[in-house]
Amino acid sequence: MSLPNNLVNHPTDCGLYTNIDLAPTAFKTKNKSSLQMAWDNMYTHLQKTILKRVSSPYAVYMGVGNIKFFDYDKSVASVDVIRKLNKKGLKIYLYEPISTYTTESKGLYAEYETGTTKVLSYELDSIQSYVKRNGLTNVQVYTPNHDIKKYFQKHYPNIALFCTPIGWIYPATINIELNKISSDTIQKKFWCGAWRYTSTRHLLASYLTENYNETTNLSWIYQSTSNILRQQLWFDITNLPQHKQILAGADKLGLLSPITMDISVPNALKIDEYVSIDMNTNPKEFYKQSFCAIINETRFAEPTQLLTEKTMYAILNHMPFILVGPPHSLKYMRKWGWKTFDKWFDESYDDEECHYKRIEKILKLIDDIGSKSIQELKELYNEMQPILEYNSNFILKLQTQILSSPITKNTLFKRIQHDN
Questions:
Q1: CB count, 10 Å around CB of 342?
Q2: Residues 66, 155, 329: CA angle, nearest 5 degrees
Q3: CB atoms within 10 A of CB 374
Q4: Which entry of 87, 206, 231, 327 is 20 to 30 Å from 13 by CA?
């Protein structure tokens, strides 16, 4: 790989931060982008919290996709550094969930059906390339993805994989306000946020636009047509009983976009465009108006479970939720102490490993909730109050555990690693 023109001398400008000289040649930009400044801010939080007093070699990657520094063919450490890394080990923490792909389905947000025999990761590709180039023998990679060993370890024999969601630092660094919602403030049935484009988010926004436009607080900032949606989905949409409503909604959504909450976007974006936002964005007034959050997690049609700030914010705002993520994500939540809403919702969608069938079950649950009046939902919300309060308080408990000791000694993170 040739060195990009705007990258010269320090790795932080490609999303990589480290406490050891991983190569004499690294990357630096003269003018920092807003994304780079956001990365700097997040790394500062990490240094003050879970990386505080960590002196053993580590690197943190804040970005998504291939890691340019590790891909660069001249990223070769000195003999002394290689000797030190092989003796003490190198821990690499991925802030974001891994970007996965298959030979048939590529792209930063690739989606594919269950049963694909070989699933790979852009980030792990880059790390393994650097490890092999430098002859490293003691590298551990920590990702937010639960079950990472089960699905990926066999394809990356040169690195040891663990689940350690350092993204859980969000509740430890954001200014937490337990925004308790009164049922009196509920005016709408759903809250559904989406920022970066994925076809699953497009599908859900289209369905909500067609069926629940007046009763949903929705964000959607991209161009939308039924043809765009068809082309982006990993499956034939006619497999879904609701496909006619979805496609009609996709065309209507295009006429309404951009739709936002709290943040202004002047024009609808192409689906491959992206607008950076503050990670601490919390449209709490829109949460207060809504009964249920439809959480578009970072990934959907892939095997490993994950939880990010998207789920945390809904919980902090005392909201029941439908978790639109990989299969068994609710099971993963319950394992770590949160409670879900199976007393009131059909949560069998969480067990469905066929991704498009899981969408079908999610849409049926949306219809079940959507069929109720606002008054009925207010009464339901009052019944749920004990669980809503428990879940938000549990985040405060997590905050205490996260801040209790550095990541290398933290019992919470060790528990997660050993559970995989």
A1: 12
A2: 75
A3: 14
A4: 87
pLDDT digits (tens, 9 = 90+) for 38-47: 888 888 888 8
Length of the chain: 420
The model's pTM is: 0.90
* Closest CA relative to residue 60, chosen from 12, 90, 92, 31: 92
List of domains in the chain: 11-164 (no CATH), 175-398 (3.40.50)
Q: What is the 3-state secondary structure (H, E, C) of the chain?
A: CCCCCCCCCCHHHHCEEECCCCCCCCCCCCCCCHHHHHHHHHHHHHHHCCCCCCCCCEEEECCCCCCHHHHCCCCCCCHHHHHHHHHHCEEEEECCCCCEECCCCCCCCCCCCCCCCCCEEHHHHHHHHHHHHHCCCCEEEEECCECHHHHHHHHCCCCEEEECCHHHHHHHHCCCCCCCCCHHHCCEEEEECCCCCCHHHHHHHHHHHHHHHHHEEECECECCCHHHHHHHCCCCHHHCCCHHHHHHHHHHHHHHCCECCCCCCCCCECCCCCCCCCCCCCCHHHHHHEEEEEEECCCCCCCCECCCHHHHHHHHCCCCEEEECCCCHHHHHHHCCCCCCCCCCCCHHHHCCCHHHHHHHHHHHHHHHHCCCHHHHHHHHHHHHHHHHHHHHHHHHHHHHHCCCCCCCCHHHHHHHHCC
Q: Between the CA of residue 261 and those of 282, 286, 358, what are the distances in Å?
A: 9, 7, 27
Note the pLDDT tens digit of each residue in 322-338.
999 999 999 999 988 99
Taking only the tens place, the pLDDT of each residue in 223-244 is 999 999 999 999 999 999 999 9
Contacts of 48 (CB under 8 A, 6+ apart): none
